[in-house]
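ingest -> validate -> predict -> emit
validate: passed (alphabet ok, no gaps, 182 aa)
predict: started
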Amino acid sequence: MCKGLAALPQTCLVRAKEIKTKLGTLLQKPDNAIDLIIPYPEKQEKKPEKLQKPTPEEASQWRESLDRVLANDYGVATFRSFLRSEFSEENIEFWAACEDFKKTKNPMKMSTKAKKIYEDFIQTGGPKEVNIDHVTKDVTLRNLVDLSSATFDLAQSRIFTLMEKDSFGRFLRSDMYQELIK
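emit:
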């Protein structure tokens, strides 16, 4: 044991070991490639509903805030398409995954979704890693020990702010949006 840990009270060390055990289970790499292919129980796929294009008046209300865009299915699809053109689609995907996670009530499904969100978006080197600071990553990792609908709130808030301050203005000036308000 290193000198730094020896100075800590025994209760802290015991608690740290408990947290390490819980996180170890959550962050465990699958032994089998099939675990990566089928992360959720099989569901019958629903045909996506055809999205209703907003009127120019409705679309012009999106200027008020990013919340307005994200409250509209067509707005989300259009904003996602714009972010894809800017190579930052992972931000809206992370936001949507967090929204879906918040609606989940079943603890087993919550655990599975939390692991997938962490591995895809938060974990360093993840396939769709979002741009968040290390403090937010640490807080989110600690939140994974005791799952709740608020587990990803801080990280989701940071990404929302990033989209709002960075991408939203360019979206409003984009040809994609300008076509909707004509």
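Confidence is low (pLDDT under 50) at residues 31-47.
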